[in-house]
Amino acid sequence: MTPESETSTWYHWGMVRNFQTEDRGLTFRIRDGQAAVFAEDTEILEAQQENILRRPDRELLNFKIDAGGVNARRIVERELARQGK
Questions:
Q1: Per-residue model confidence (pLDDT) at position 72
Q2: Helix or strand or coil: residue 74?
């Protein structure tokens, strides 16, 4: 996931395998299966963004699994503050 703007993100994904590489049918089945999973993610992410825009006053909840992203945002905020931005 790569932010594009304040409210949009590019969602890139790919796959690699080192077995049955000559089996194009397997390639397509794996690709289609992964695409379906990522489509579900996209649906949830879009709904979350709509809720954030609808209720900008609400504070987001962070869970232990969010620690990496939370720490990254804190580093960015600290650096921006240091630069006076």
A1: 92
A2: helix
